Amino acid sequence: MQELLETSPKYTGCRFMDEDKKIFSATLRIDKIHNVSAMCFSHQSDMLAVGNPSSVSLLQIQGEQILHTWKYNEVRALAFSKDDRFLACGTNSGIAILSLKSGKEISWVPTTSPVISLRFSFDGNKLAAVDDGRYSGHQPEIYLFQFEEPKTE
């Protein structure tokens, strides 16, 4: 269990204490990412997906390196697949499934309103999404997808 000790307004970072009472910092200084609208850790906690109004970036935590950047308008929700091989990205107009191995979009599903939340099921076989209903003039819609890995990435 990690305990948050402090955050700093001077830079993007914070300090944690682990169960052995060792203090470590978690600081990412990524100057190219602004106006963050969504974030999600990979299941292995080695990557962080960060969305903003014009893109989604995949960061490698160790080394603070940007691995991939994809251009999408108004990224609002992000979710890693169970095996951390895919990233679902919810935007103002749909859902993209991105291959982290190839860096390519492998699927695009248009939605009637902005996607505000995404979750893969615990077994990794389903993806749920919800939109905010803003543009369609109705209540928010929940989308359920059977997630099947592509034959080739």
Layout of strands and helices, then pairs:
Elements: E1 3-7, E2 13-17, E3 23-27, E4 38-41, E5 47-51, E6 55-60, E7 65-71, E8 77-80, E9 86-90, E10 94-99, E11 105-110, E12 115-120, E13 126-131, E14 142-146
Antiparallel strand pairs: 1-2, 2-3, 4-5, 5-6, 6-7, 8-9, 9-10, 10-11, 12-13, 13-14
Question: In short, what is this structure?
Answer:
With 153 residues, the protein is mainly beta. Helix content is 0%, strand content 49%.
Descriptive tags:
single chain, 153 residues, mainly beta, Methylamine Dehydrogenase, Chain H, 2 domains, 4-stranded antiparallel β-sheet, 14 strands, globular, disordered N terminus
SS-derived structural category: mainly beta
CATH superfamily caption of the largest domain: YVTN repeat-like/Quinoprotein amine dehydrogenase
- Average pLDDT metric: 80
Order of helices and strands: EEEEEEEEEEEEEE
Largest sheet entry = 4 strands, antiparallel
Q: What is the 3D form?
A: globular
Radius of gyration: 17 Å
So how many helices? 0
CATH class of the largest domain: Mainly Beta
Would you count the extended β strands for me? 14
Can you tell me the residue ranges where pLDDT is under 50 for at least 5 consecutive residues?
1-15
Strand order of the largest sheet: 4-5-6-7
Give the proportion of residues in helices: under 10%
CATH architecture of the largest domain: 7 Propeller
Distance between the termini: 36 Å
